[in-house]
TrEMBL record:
Chain segments annotated as transmembrane: 40-59, 71-88, 94-116, 128-149, 155-179, 211-234, 246-266, 273-292, 352-375
InterPro entries on file: MFS, MFS_dom, MFS_trans_sf, MFS_Transporter
PROSITE patterns: MFS (PS50850)
Major facilitator superfamily (MFS) profile domain boundaries: 5-381
UniProt name for this protein: MFS transporter
Keyword Transmembrane among record annotations: yes
Superkingdom in the source lineage: Bacteria
Gene3D superfamilies, A to Z: MFS general substrate transporter like domains (1.20.1250.20)
Keywords: Membrane, Transmembrane, Transmembrane helix, Transport
Phylogenetic placement of the source organism: Bacteria, Bacillati, Bacillota, Clostridia, Eubacteriales
Amino acid sequence: MLTVLLVIIYIAFISLGLPDAILGSAWPALHQDLSVPISYAGVVTMIVAGGTIVSSFFSGKVIKKFGTGKVTTFSVFLTAAALLGIYFSHGFVWICILGIPLGLGAGAVDSALNNFVALRYEAKHMNWLHCFWGIGATAGPFIMSLYLLKENGWRLGYLTIGIIQAILVVCLFASLPLWKRFEVKDNDEEDTHIEVKVSTLIKLPGAKPALISFFCYCAIELTTGLWASSFLVVNNGLSAEKAAKWVSLYYLGITVGRFLSGFVAIKLDNKQMIRIGQVICIIGAISLMMPFSNTLQLVGLILIGLGCAPIYPAMLHETPNRFGKELSQGIMGIQMSTAYVGSTFVPPVFGFLSGIIGFNILPYFLIILMVLMLVTSERVSKVCKAKENI
C-alpha cells in the first residue's frame, strides 16, 4: 500500500515541475505579445514564489487540519486553474494575478510531499522524488517549444500543460482513500517533534550557514531556468524555440542526475553528494562563460543541471543528521522558506542587473552564488562535525 502511494506521490511531483520551467521558455515570445519589457519576467516569478512562501509557511497547520491527500489534490487543482487561466489572459496584469494561485499550489505540494517522504522513505526515494519533479520541469519547456513557432504558441503551450495538470487532479482525487488510511494512523501515533521558537532554531550551531546554502541553491536553480533562454536569445542570437529546447536540456540534466543520484546515494553520504554537485555546477558555469562555442555553452547548461541534481535532496535529507531528529521538523520549514526567498528575489535582481549591464553577466552571477553555497555548506559540515566530537 505504501508503494502504491509512493507512485502517486511521484506523479504529483511531475505536476509540481511542469509549471516551474515554462515561463522562462515562453517569455521571449510572451513579453512581445503582451508588449512589456523582457525584464518583467522577474516580476511574475517574484509573485509566484511569494505565493509559494506563504503556502509553505502555513502548510503545517493546513495539512494538520485537512490531511496531506486533500491539500495536495487541491493544490494541484489551483495550479491547473491558473495555467488554464493564463491561456485566456490578454494582459500582463492577468498573468501576475494568476501567478498567485500558481505559487500557492506549488508551495503546499512541495512542503506536504517532502515531509511525507522524509518521514517514511529512504534517501534514495528523496532523490527519485525530485527526479520526477525534473521530468515535469523538462517536459514543460519541451512542450512549450513545440508550440512557439505557431501563432499564439505560448498560449497553446499553457493550455496543453493545464490540461495535463487537470488530469493529474482527477488521479489524485481518486487516491484520497489511500491517503486517509495513513493520516488516521499518524493521528494515533505520538508526536515526537519538539516545538521550538524560530529565533532559537536560527541560533543552532550551523543553522545560519545552512540557511544561506539553501538560499543560494534555489537562487541558482531558478535564475538559470528563468533567464538562460533569454541569455541564449539575446547574447547568442538563438531563436526562441531553439533556446527553449536548450533550457529543457538543463532540466533534463537535473532529472537524469537525480535518477542516478538515487543509486549513488546508496554508496555515498549526503555530504559527499552535496560537495560533488556543487563542483559540477561551478564547472558548468565556467563553460557557460565561453562565448566562442555554442556547444560548450550547451554542455555548461547541462552540467549545471547535473550538478544541481543531488544538492537539494541531499540537503533536505541531511537535516536530521545536522540538527537532530527532534528539531528537524522546525528547521526544515525555515530552510524551505529561506530557499523560496532566494527563488523569489534573486531572479528579479538579475533581471534588473541584466537590463543595466547585459545578459552576458549570467555565468558570473551564477558563479558568485555557487561559490557562496559551497563555502557555507562546508561551514555547516565543519560545525556539525565539531559538535559530534564534543
